[in-house]
Design a protein that fits this description.
Blueprint: E1 3-4, E2 12-21, E3 25-32, E4 35-42, H1 47-63, E5 71-79, E6 82-90, E7 96-97, H2 98-104, H3 107-126, E8 129-131, E9 139-141, E10 146-148, E11 154-156, H4 162-173, H5 178-195, H6 207-225, E12 234-238, E13 242-247, H7 259-268, E14 270-274, E15 278-285, E16 288-295, H8 300-306, H9 312-325, E17 333-341, E18 344-353, H10 360-366, H11 370-389, E19 392-393, E20 402-405, E21 408-411, E22 418-419, H12 423-439, H13 445-458, H14 463-467
Antiparallel strand pairs: 1-2, 2-3, 3-4, 4-6, 5-6, 7-9, 8-11, 9-10, 12-13, 13-17, 14-15, 15-16, 16-18, 17-18, 19-22, 20-21
Helix pairs in contact: 3-4, 3-5, 4-6, 6-9, 11-13
């Protein structure tokens, strides 16, 4: 798209299409009347409804003196032969989407940005406004200010009650890294209360539980449902005897969809593991190195026991997306292929990117700089604490299932990973993971003690360490 023709003014010269929601909305960056702008073009069956809702939200923000890009012009256009509605906004110089900023900032930088976002959301609530689509991507940050964008999600209340406001705040906090929020939550809630001029904080004790519940719900909706159907991130297809889901980021990769083709690929590949239960191979598709993990069917009895259950390949697929969504390092998932006869499951395949990295035992055996080793120990322990806070258990924490990218750990072999909903079972499984991990170092007293000391520092609550019996009462 080179330009957007408008019915009542000069066209928008398009520099970049920022976002497309098929049959609904296009967001572009460009030039209009000689100035840099962002424009939203609403089209499709509900174009006018979405346009009016976005316009209403923008007007509510402006009326409440909440920073938002200035609305310069409203107009109409033609998209796909039908009437479309256009909103043109000032482009904020040097502004960065806060979701991107959080991903690249230091620990202190993330905290400073979190404080600013909490203040902005508190100002929403003070003005009886609620951002229903509360993601960091719906804010822009400059060095001095944070701007609220996306008026479509703004709702106005005659009087916003405290319970609804705190639910909305908890939704915002659930989008930050779980470890950051564990350490920051008291400070951020104090900032919120101060911004709203509260002397006391109502329902304070409910907020951490709400934050965790939102985080778990959103991650589950994405990893357990969305990645198994056609969406922006995933392509899917049901063949006569197989089902395939593949990552949109790898759509150009000629991934075999037939079981025979996959078996032939494995036969020619470099075998990493050849067992009864699964076969793992390092294959090359075009010029891309790919790890192919095939979950085998051992015999007729095994086939009967597996055909109605979720395949282990699909568990790995879901967990890879879950970890990526939650900011935990794991190889990028590429594809899931399942043998299906009348929806009865057979062999299944999980394809992921190949990452050249040593396992954790090899890493420490080769390490020479004590300071770097100490940092790696801390990063690994923080990984465990994140898993604990998220109620995730890995199920097989032997050293070969943790790779090291510099000092950063990367989890692999995710088919035994579980998302727990009950704290009792989550704690029990976490204790098992801790014990299994610490057994890796039973013959290395120095490293064992280094991990033990790091666990004592990182874990705010020592009860998981005592439950695992790696720390005495």
């Amino acid at each position: 798209m080179q330009q957007i023709l408008l019915n009542n003014s000069e066209p928008i010269l398009v520099d970049e299409t920022v976002r497309t929601v098929p049959h609904q909305r296009i967001v572009v960056r460009g030039v209009w009347n000689g100035q840099a702008v962002f424009a939203k073009v609403f089209y499709g069956a509900r174009a006018k409804q979405h346009y009016l809702r976005d316009l209403s939200g923008v007007n509510y923000l402006a009326a409440a003196n909440i920073l938002t890009p200035s609305l310069l012009h409203k107009d109409e256009s033609i998209v796909d032969g039908a009437l479309a509605y256009v909103l043109i906004f000032t482009a904020i110089a040097d502004a960065v989407n806060t979701e991107q900023l959080l991903a690249t900032s230091s620990h202190q930088g993330r905290f400073d940005l979190a404080v600013k976002l909490v203040k902005v959301v508190a100002s929403h609530h003070q003005a009886n406004l609620l951002q229903t689509d509360l993601y960091p991507k719906n804010f822009l940050a400059t060095a001095e200010h944070v701007y609220t964008i996306d008026g479509d999600g703004i709702r106005h209340y005659a009087k916003l009650d405290q319970k609804t406001a705190l639910q909305n705040l908890s939704l915002l906090l659930s989008k930050f890294d779980v470890l950051d929020i564990e350490y920051w939550i008291d400070d951020l809630l104090a900032v919120y209360a101060q911004t709203r001029d509260w002397k006391t904080f109502p329902h304070r004790a409910t907020v951490p539980g709400l934050v965790n519940a939102y985080r778990q719900k959103i991650a589950s909706m994405y990893a357990d449902k969305k990645v198994f159907r056609q969406c922006t991130d995933i392509n899917t297809h049901q063949y006569r005897n197989s089902f395939i889901a593949w990552a949109s980021a790898y759509s150009s990769l000629p991934i075999p969809s037939e079981i025979k083709q996959l078996d032939a690929l494995i036969a020619k590949a470099n075998l990493l593991k050849d067992g009864n239960t699964c076969t793992v191979a390092l294959a090359k598709i075009d010029d891309t190195d790919v790890v192919v993990k095939r979950y085998n069917i051992k015999n007729v009895t095994h086939r009967l026991s597996r055909m109605f259950r979720q395949t282990r390949a699909s568990i790995s697929w879901a967990n890879a997306y879950r970890l990526n969504f939650l900011g935990i390092n794991t190889p990028k998932p590429i594809a899931l292929i399942e043998q299906r006869d009348f929806y009865l499951r057979g062999k299944a395949y999980f394809l992921s990117e190949y990452v050249e990295a040593p396992d954790v035992a090899t890493y420490f055996a080769q390490a020479q700089d004590p300071a770097v080793s100490d940092e790696a120990v801390k990063e690994i322990v923080q990984l465990f604490y994140r898993l604990y806070l998220l109620k995730l258990s890995h199920g097989d924490m032997k050293f070969s299932n943790i790779k090291m990218l510099g000092t950063r750990p990367m989890l692999i072999d995710l088919d035994s990973m579980q998302q727990h909903h009950c704290q009792y079972f989550a704690s029990k499984a976490h204790a098992k993971d801790l014990r299994r991990f610490m057994r890796n170092w039973k013959d290395d007293t120095s490293l064992y003690n280094a991990f033990l000391q790091a666990f004592k520092v990182v874990y705010v609550d020592h009860s998981p360490l005592k439950k695992a019996k790696i720390l005495s009462d």
